[in-house]
Specification:
By secondary structure, the chain is of the alpha/beta class. Helix content is 55%, strand content 10%. The chain has two domains: 229 residues, Spore Coat Polysaccharide Biosynthesis Protein SpsA, Chain A (Alpha-Beta Complex), CATH 3.90.550; 121 residues. Strand 2, helix 2 and strand 3 form a beta-alpha-beta unit. Helix 9 packs antiparallel against helix 10. The structure holds guanosine-5'-diphosphate-alpha-D-mannose (GDD) and manganese (II) ion (MN). One of its GO terms (cellular component) is membrane.
Length: 361
């Protein structure tokens, strides 16, 4: 049976929420031709068993099991691409989203010429009771403000994880979606060449019943990266900006170590300079690993190998730097310009090569 509406539900350890959710969908969507597609990132709590049992029993329940990949946004994107339904909804598995909105959302798309309908926790008549804490609500409001700088529309809840759209809208943006973090709705708006015709519906964000939230500092960090990518990323890759900032900090670390060893510890210059270089490279590696490549963070033995490869890359980078600066200088450039050009070329080398060698896939 061809389905009109596909509901994409990302799951990560939601075992006890699946059956109640499907029961609620059955009730709300009776009379519609709908399917639900769960995209599970290799849950470890038995979610997959529950999903497969359901999917074997019923034609309109399917499971996409992803291994070795993580992330709410990319799960939703892959789910939407795995069905041919003309209307696509995204909603959480944890029963925080009010499923009774779905029929109204569908009507707005089908009969009212909207391209996307957003369920909002902050629109008129809405309530964000389920945000659980004042701190969480605060984070959400600040996030909204920042997010609307790039959606180009005054959405009351640009970070909502509950919305429905037409497939045509997905098709126009899908090649530009960044797919990282939690912020898929924002990404859709930011990637659309014009503001889509949208509508908002207020709802009461319920409290999570079973399981726990996966929104952590990693997710907030990825949100920052997405914002930076959508604003600055057109000109310079965000990773390069972070890498350059870390490098700048490294110069400070270098000078600090050099000064302390030379003047406070009385070590000879050559040794002080050598130690400062190693300390600065090590701290650059650690900072890049923690921030610039947070999503590919190396740990344990991988950290050690990464550090060694980073030393090697930087050593070659230093040679490149000196050679290029020398070449520019000998061609009559001012010493400062020659030094600057050498440093920039060396940094670009370090960035480009370490991206592949040290943090590559
Ligand atoms: N497949 C997959 N992979 N699913 C995930 C992942 C992941 O890496 N991380 C979370 N999920 C699923 C959860 O199982 C749940 O169904 C849904 O995504 C939302 O995750 P929660 O951990 O419950 O998020 P939340 O309630 O804290 O965040 C909600 O509010 C945010 C804004 O404040 C969500 O609606 C977000 O989408 C929204 O941005
Ligand atoms: Mn939740």
């Amino acid at each position: 049976m061809p389905y009109d509406l596909a509901i994409i539900v990302p799951t990560l350890n939601e075992r006890d929420n699946i059956e109640p959710l499907v029961a609620l969908l059955d009730r709300t969507l009776a009379g519609e031709r709908w399917q639900v597609l769960f995209v599970d990132d290799d849950s470890t709590d038995g979610t997959l068993d529950v999903l497969r049992r359901l999917a074997r029993d019923r034609a309109n329940v399917s499971v996409l099991h992803r291994v070795g990949r993580r992330g709410l946004s990319s799960a939703c994107i892959e789910g939407m691409l795995a069905t041919a339904a003309p209307y696509l909804a995204v909603m959480d598995a944890d029963l925080q989203h009010d499923e009774t909105l779905l029929p109204r959302m569908l009507t707005l798309l089908r009969d009212e010429d909207r391209e996307i309908v957003v369920a909002s926790r902050f629109a008129e008549g809405a309530s964000a009771a389920g945000l659980a804490s004042a701190r969480r609500e605060m984070v959400s409001r600040v996030g909204n403000f920042l997010a609307n700088r790039i959606t180009g529309a005054p959405l009351t809840d640009p970070l909502s994880g509950f919305f429905m759209l037409r497939r045509e809208l997905l098709d126009t943006v899908v090649h530009d979606l960044s797919g990282t973090g939690f912020k898929i709705l924002l990404d859709i708006f930011a990637s659309s060449p014009r503001v889509p015709r949208y509508a908002e519906l207020g709802f009461t964000f319920r409290e999570r019943q079973a399981g726990e939230s996966k929104l952590d500092s990693q997710v907030i960090w990825e949100f920052g990266m997405l914002l930076a990518d959508k604003t600055l990323g057109r000109w310079i890759p965000v990773r390069f900006i972070l890498f350059a900032l870390v490098g700048l900090l490294g110069v400070g670390v270098h000078l600090l170590v050099l000064g302390v060893m030379l003047h406070l510890a009385g070590v000879v210059f050559l040794w002080s300079q050598a130690t400062a270089t190693v300390v600065a490279m090590t701290s650059n590696f650690a900072l890049n690993n923690a921030f610039t490549y947070r999503d590919r963070r190396l740990r344990g033995l991988g950290f050690v190998w990464g550090l060694l490869s980073f030393y090697l890359v930087c050593a070659i980078g230093a040679v490149v730097n000196v050679e290029v600066a020398d070449l520019v200088y000998r061609n009559g450039a001012h010493w400062a310009l020659a030094g600057f050009v050498g440093a920039v070329v060396g940094s670009v080398w370090n960035f480009g090569v370490s991206a592949i060698v040290t943090w590559g896939p």
